[in-house]
Amino acid sequence: MVWRRMTAPDPDSRPVAPRDRFIDAGGLLMHYLDWGGEGPPIVLLHGLRDQAHEWDAIAPALVPYGQVVAPDQRGHGGTDRPRTGYDPADFAGDLEAFCTALDLDRPVVIGHSMGARTAYAFAATRPGRLRGLVLVDIGAQGAPETIPAMVEELRANDGPFSSADDAIRALIGPELAPSTALRAYVGHNLRQTGDGLLAWAYNLDAAIETVRRGRGRDWWDVVARIGVPTLLVRGARSDVLGREEAARMIETIPDAVLVEIPGAGHLVPQVRPRELAAAIIGWLPAVLDGVR
């Protein structure tokens, strides 16, 4: 097992505005953001209740290393919201269709939370389709006993909100100061209701079904089949991925490195985007060069 605590300096990330695009991915109309870049494809997958703009503060730092794109996953953002199909296997199928439609050959896939589960489901079932994998604050331990509380929390925090600050407090609580990236994320992920209040832009029923499918079983048999270099990132204050489970993940995945981000909980991309970008950049070149 390799363990590193990441305190690297902030990467030099110049602002790069992504382009909004849509593509038919196996019959699912998917919205995605395209930051451009040349070289190996890098696909960014957001977490539950998020959308592609989750990566706005991180993607520009990755553009020098390849072609950077981030789709909205089904039920989220501007992508179609079918009534069914919210198992990790369904999300992995969408990822395959997305990569095929855009002719993305052997991408590095970087996923946060739900997006990381999509990524490892894809890696385990489609050997040879990936170049590398970054899993941000996700484990493989099932937790069916937590599903009722999570569903209750999803319903309770669905809004409406009187302001964006109220929505931020629903996400991270009052004890953490919101980052610029988090404020930007919330701005992209809220919609106006008919009475002038704010609500999240994702589909609540889709989010609930995703939780039930993702947390209802263990995924150790899946992560054991990951056959590409993998970076596992854990927020040091995470209540989703504990240290023991993170250590087991590294022991289970054949070629994996663990990095811990100080001061971050589960929302690593939103709360510590520069530190996360630095961790990825510290690992990525060797994977792209075929050294790992």
Automatic annotation (TrEMBL):
Q: Which GO terms describe its molecular function?
A: catalytic activity
**Positions of the AB hydrolase-1 domain:** 40-268
Q: Record's superkingdom?
A: Bacteria
What Pfam families does this protein map onto? Abhydrolase_1
Coiled-coil annotation reads: none
Question: Which protein is depicted?
Answer: AB hydrolase-1 domain-containing protein
| Source organism (scientific name) | uncultured Thermomicrobiales bacterium
